[in-house]
């Protein structure tokens, strides 16, 4: 997809809570390949909203490691930690649209209210406890100090065509439930921050890991509630370790630093991952 000015805009959006590994490199190099093939540009966005876990040393390391892997991005790098006023505005738009509601449930409340077992690693469907709550009295500062949840259209199939995986379909209220867009610590959730920034940066295609497929369905609902056109999506396969587990932040021997120290050549990364 092209932007209004006809240009493809892609982005890579790492979270600096650890060192980059082969999986990151493969996904990001694919993003670069697609941007170049379309004659477009590639942006780097640092998703450093998790103040407790994101570290400056990881930001420096990721730029160094990704550049070593052959990735090139536009000079202006966006850092989400500097964009809180933009995220507040996005929350304001969702509130105005009546798409979100204040939620006082803790994780424990949600877990206790759900009897049905849920798939491990997948967020349980929110039971709807606070769905009818309204934010009536209070200042803007009060509004930013509570959790806000997005009300999903129960039973609606959210379908999209993924650039690699083809037709995808998730049913709201079944495959995922009402999800957080804002946390009472004053920060947006991943879903809201990503959508707000992909819009701000005029991203026309999102290339990322397959683990975020269901998130795409949630994000499509956010675009719709904001009255905005969504970008295209292309989800890459995840790289697994020798035991068949997906690579975590501590990827050991498949970390880019480790590969580099062992003398791996950047041009061999894709074949190492079985991608050529
Ligand atoms: N920052 C996210 C992550 O590292 C990726 C966000 C995205 O590509 O949408 O998992």
UniProtKB/TrEMBL annotation:
Its Enzyme Commission number(s) read 6.1.1.-
Family as reported in the entry's similarity comment? Belongs to the class-I aminoacyl-tRNA synthetase family.
One of the entry's Gene Ontology molecular-function terms is:
glutamate-tRNA ligase activity
The UniProt entry, under PROSITE patterns, shows: AA_TRNA_LIGASE_I (PS00178)
| Gene Ontology annotations of biological process type | glutamyl-tRNA aminoacylation
Check the record and name the InterPro entries matching this protein.
aa-tRNA-synth_I_CS, Glu/Gln-tRNA-synth, Glu/Gln-tRNA-synth_Ib_cat-dom, GluQ/Sye, Rossmann-like_a/b/a_fold
Alphabetical GO CC annotations of the entry are: cytosol
**Does this UniProt record's set of keywords contain S-adenosyl-L-methionine?**
no
Q: Which organism is it from?
A: Pelagicoccus enzymogenes
Q: Which UniProt keywords apply?
A: Aminoacyl-tRNA synthetase, ATP-binding, Ligase, Metal-binding, Nucleotide-binding, Protein biosynthesis, Zinc
User: What Gene3D superfamilies does UniProt report for this protein, alphabetically?
Assistant: HUPs
Which PANTHER family does the UniProt record give?
A: GLUTAMATE--TRNA LIGASE, GLUTAMYL-Q TRNA(ASP) SYNTHETASE
Name it: tRNA glutamyl-Q(34) synthetase GluQRS
* Record domain Glutamyl/glutaminyl-tRNA synthetase class Ib catalytic: where: 11-272
Determine if Electron transport is one of this entry's keywords: no
Classification of source organism: Bacteria, Pseudomonadati, Verrucomicrobiota, Opitutia, Puniceicoccales
SUPFAM superfamilies in the cross-refs: Nucleotidylyl transferase
